Amino acid sequence: MRALILVDIQNDFLPGGALGVTGGHEIVPVANRVMPFYDLVVATQDWHPADHQSFASQHAGRSVGEVVTVDGLEQILWPDHCVEGTWGAEFPEDLDTAGIHHVVRKGTDRMIDSYSGFFDNDHRKSTGLAEFLREQGVTAVDVMGLATDYCVKHTAVDAAELGFEVRLLLEGVRGVELAPGDCDKAVGHMEDKGVTIHREPERTP
Fold it and tell me: Is 153 a catalytic site residue?
């Protein structure tokens, strides 16, 4: 079975949100259009405690975009975003959530970020997503969502390394681009790791 993974399509990652991705709203209709073609749709959801250590607000004198060390790992500092239970953490109203069969929440540990839908950033803990997919008989996944150069990249690469056949739906991703070219580099990295890049938006999966 091939499943669809929707990565972090949440209010705070859309334009106007705390960490809005340029063009992020454009992928919502893509998700709505392709979901009916899958027997299983899984959505990941950043779900941070208010004192999450990826937030610049938790580090005196530090600014968004700076890199610090948290619990032995390098951590990019972000604006407060996707705080559990807030509007910013919710799925947007125009996303057809009735088509989502399972939700995986990540980034719940205040001391470590979780870009991937499968693991935290040091692979210390699993979210249980791989086990869930295998229990459902899934052998292949299509990945889309936000953001190309962070959570989408890490989710797709981890899926490939876990043995799933992985396709990136390029029409359905947008990126942060802290540095110009980050998204192209991310797509190239995914391809190097065995992810197939699906570049033809006119086709349905």
Answer: no
Do 116 and 160 contact (CB within 8 A), yes or no? Answer: no
Task: Tell me which DSSP letter residue 83 carries.
Answer: B
Residue 179, phi then psi, degrees to nearest 5: -125, 140
Query: Exposure of 128 by Cβ count < 10 A (0-12 exposed, 13-18 middle, 19+ buried)?
Result: exposed
User: How high is the pLDDT of residue 178?
Assistant: 87
Is-catalytic flag, 151?
A: yes
Whether the pLDDT of residue 205 is over 90: the answer is no
Fold of 2-47+83-198: Rossmann fold (3.40.50)
Give me the catalytic one of 82, 106, 113, 149: 106
9-13, 60-64, 167-171, 197-201: least confidently modelled range: 197-201
Taking only the tens place, the pLDDT of each residue in 48-85 is 999 999 999 999 999 998 999 999 999 999 999 999 99
Which residues lie closer than 8 Å to 151 by C-beta, 6 or more apart? 7, 8, 44, 46, 115, 116, 117, 145
Give me 100's structure tokens: 């989502």
Q: What share of the chain is helix, strand, coil (3-state, %, to 5)?
A: 30, 25, 45
Give yes or no: 8 in active site: yes
